[in-house]
Specification:
Elements lengths: L17 H8 L20 H5 L7 E2 L2 H10 L6 E2 L6 E2 H8 L2 H18 L1 H10 L13 H9 L11 H15 L13 H4 L14 H10 L29 H11 L11 E2 L2 H13 L3 E6 L5 H10 L2 H4 L2 E9 L4 H15 L6 E7 L9 H16 L3 E5 L6 H6 L4 E6 L6 H9 L4 E3 L9 H23 L6 H12 L5 H10 L5 E4 L5 E4 L2
Parallel strand pairs: 2-3, 5-6, 5-8, 6-7, 8-9, 9-10
Antiparallel strand pairs: 1-4, 11-12
Amino acid sequence: MTKKTKTTPTPKRPTITTKDITALASLITFSDEETKPEEEDPSPSSQEKRAAYSEYRNATYTIVSIVAYLIGIPKEYFGDENATNFLMKTYEELEQNKDARIIRNLCRIRAAMERNYKAIAHEFWLNIKNIGSVPDLIPADAVETLAKDGVRLYKQRPEIDEYILAINIELSNRINTAAPLFPEWIKWEYIRPLFIMPGGTKKENLKKAGEIYNSDRLRYPFQCWINWEAVSASPESKGNILYTDEKFVRIIYERHEDRFENLSLVRNAGNHTMRNLENLLQSSKKCVVVVDCENADAVKLAAALSSLPAYQLSKIAKVLLFDSEYTTDQWSTLVDRMLHTAAAEKASFEIEHILVPRVNQNKSQCDMTLAVRTSREVYTSGVDGVILVSSDSDYWAMIQQLEGVRFLVMLEKRKTGLAIMDALTIHNIPFCFIDDFCTAASYTIKTTTLINGIQEQIRHFLAGEGGQPLNLREMMNIALQGSWITMTDKEKENFFTRYLQRAKMTVAADGAVSITIG
């Protein structure tokens, strides 16, 4: 006897009604500038409010600004981060760098010659003009600046191909001087080919390069020449490859069948977070940052503070670091310096490092000390704004008791439970994740920490305290463990290649040996 199978009827396609649309509209989060609908629930659940913190992170423009400067994009396209993709600050810094200026002006002249090839050839051949006498076709300021920087391109019998060959040779010989302009976390060997014309040191190859460029100038950034073979062939590359740092690194890594993993280096905190920070700092007469070093990451805190604009950092009166003897040396030896560096060009807040001893070795006193000292700052120093850096829910009692004080809590995602986030959102206390701030600004703290840790091991070894053969890779791993710094395998290899393989040994007149990294 065959068993009957139960058939499930095909569900009907749901019909969307006006009532459904109204319900959907009530879930939409509106910004302060937008008008909220009358139907919006005046008391949304904590889950709905918490969703506001799962925001899109803002783009960064550090790498694309460097590339834009070097390939010769005009100055008028650089400006404030809110108005353009290319940063004027980067332009001004690179303009003071001789090597960067030379690369930029060589690229400007080459792009002009590719763009106006026939017109320039005509002026050279028939009107006996030269490279510096056709300013409407070749930027004369680029020629003059190159001459001042020691690069003279002038030829007595000008032929445009000879000039392009000379520029290609100069760029091939000089392009590696631009490598230090880029941060160590991006592979220079992927960026370098952008500036090199394939086969560009031989005259017979110039025609092909010109045809590729002139076949579709609009795909080139502001019609500035780059080696298109160095750009990924994916559909993503058909847009503006210098749109954001994230898009640029994705494309060039994909071109080399590689993947850029640490996206926190090319993303910054979202608008919601930055608005909350600005609201707190603007509304506070005196604001302090209090940090539970046992429940916060030093590098991420540096990233957060480094990401704040100058006018916001200037509102911070003091940073209080509450530390214990069991906290990683990363705090006690380098964080003070790192915070000063992060704010050096933007603000001059006071930093107080408070070492909290333990009465019972199994029980930390950091949280109690932090709560009491914060309360004292409120009642005796006129503090009315507090940025609390900790993922510990124990501070909720302090937040509740300090009435009239505006708080913003900086959390770490992997250390934060839903309970504290719900408590904060229900009581309209803004919070953000320090993981979301761009870590590129504080990346040097990793480098400095590791170099110092390895250097200390080398000193011990050279002093005769090392019982094992000198191995810099093993020393790097020991320094990583001792500082609690996390790096991907690719980051480790980049660090090893860039610093450890270039370590220098020197012998003083008295015979003393030293090995220097970095």
